[in-house]
Design a protein that fits this description.
16% of the residues are buried. By secondary structure, the chain is mainly α. The radius of gyration is 45 Å and the shape is flat. The chain contains eleven helices and no strands. Among the domains are: 211 residues, no CATH class; 57 residues. Keywords: Membrane, Signal, Transmembrane, Transmembrane helix. This is Chemotaxis protein.
């Protein structure tokens, strides 16, 4: 009887779980993806970065190559060093500025700031303070900057509405005139806040979402890939720039080594000529240095002892933290098991309560069914018999 009761209970619970709609779980992320227009802006900005890098690096290397050829344009050593330094700084600082522009969270902000950067670089080399940085080769930098700005504007014109494009262009022209690049460091600030003020848009309305989880992960992946590609080149250019401006040259290094060799030779000659003086000097040095060495040894021993104590304290702290973590996990496991028992008990009680209510209803309906099926025809027959007997008596 007990086993049959358990089987019956399990069957009722399975039926209840399969039919109860309240147990259905629906997971919703609640994250709004980026609009398609902003996704297009982000993709274009990332693609444009490759064009920017290639154009700047090719143009800067071409300037260095032409300047290094004495047949084309003989330059002094100082003039060549200055021109090569400007070419390296153009590659380093412009590409770092572009990374800061396109790596912004908002695609609109990245697009506006990248556009401003290309326009600022074009104005800097064409008519700004950098119009004479490359001398006779200045046209190469100007042409590269003009091509980059024209390429960017041509693509953006197909991504935004015609009216919006004219507003963008009006803002870019005004902002570049008020905030020009002043030197080869490409020091600048983001133009997005100025753009919001120009369009009279609130900061809270400008960026409503950073995209869905896959979009954010894709953005991070693109950033890491670009950093991995550009970092080795930037480091090599910075090392080359440092070596170019270092005060140590090959001739100076050879002179220094020769001076060291001469000093060593004179010292050896002195030792050979005056062994008694060198022995006295060694004895004096030993006397002078002995207290210092003793103090250094004692200080080292103290530091090692202190380090050992701190290491023991760290091990004890780690051990206590591990024990506390294990106790917390054990408490949480016990609490979870208790909650599971309470939930199971409550589920069983609810199921039996509903089952009892259902059985009572079934019994009531069964009694009513018996009354209707058996007693109703009997009562109707008795009533009809009485009516017929009364009618017969009245006829007599």
């Amino acid at each position: 009887m007990g086993m049959a009761k358990k089987i019956f209970m399990v069957s009722i619970m399975l039926l209840a779980l399969s039919s109860c709609s309240l147990l259905e779980v629906k997971l919703e992320s609640g994250i709004e993806p980026l609009p398609q227009a902003q996704l297009n802006m982000r993709v274009f900005s990332r693609d444009f970065s490759n064009n920017f890098y290639s154009e700047v690096e090719t143009s800067a290397d071409k300037i260095i190559l032409l300047a290094s050829n004495p047949e084309n344009n003989p330059l002094t050593t100082a003039e060549f060093v200055a021109l090569k330094s400007n070419s390296l700084m153009w590659k380093i600082n412009s590409e770092q500025a572009l990374q800061r522009a396109i790596f912004q969270a908002s695609p609109i902000s990245a697009m506006v700031d990248t556009w401003v950067l290309t326009a600022q670089m074009n104005a800097f080399f064409s008519s700004g303070k950098g119009y004479q940085l490359f001398g006779e080769h200045q046209a190469i930098a100007i042409s590269a900057s003009e091509r980059l700005q024209a390429n960017f504007e041509r693509t953006i014109k197909g991504l935004v509405k015609a009216g919006d494009f004219e507003q963008y262009k009006q803002f870019i022209t005004q902002y570049v005139a008020e905030n020009p690049i002043t030197d080869m460091t490409f020091t600048r600030t983001s133009a997005f806040n100025a753009w919001l003020a120009f369009r009279n848009i609130s900061e809270f309305e400008a960026v409503t979402t950073f995209g869905s989880v896959p979009e954010v992960m894709s953005d991070i992946s693109d950033r890491m890939a670009m950093i991995a590609d550009q970092t080795p080149k930037l480091l090599s250019w910075k090392a080359e720039l440092y070596a170019l401006h270092s005060n140590i040259s090959a001739d100076e290094l050879q002179k220094t080594l020769a001076s060291i060799n001469n000093t060593s030779a004179h010292f050896q000659q002195l030792m050979a000529q005056s062994p008694e003086m060198m022995a006295s000097l060694a004895s004096d040095l030993r006397k002078e240095l002995s207290p210092l060495l003793t103090q250094l040894s004692e200080s080292t021993d103290d530091k090692l002892a202190q380090l050992s104590i701190e290491r023991q304290a760290l091990e004890l702290m780690v051990k206590n933290e591990r024990l506390a973590l294990e106790q917390m996990i054990a408490r949480e496991r016990i609490a979870a098991a208790a909650n599971l028992d309470d939930i199971s008990k409550h589920t069983v009680e609810v199921v039996f309560k509903e089952l009892t209510h259902t059985l009572k209803s079934l019994i009531l309906y069964f009694v009513l069914f018996l009354l209707v099926i058996f007693f109703a025809p009997l009562g109707l027959g008795v009533w009809l018999g009485k009516r017929m007997a009364l009618k017969s008596e009245m006829q007599k």
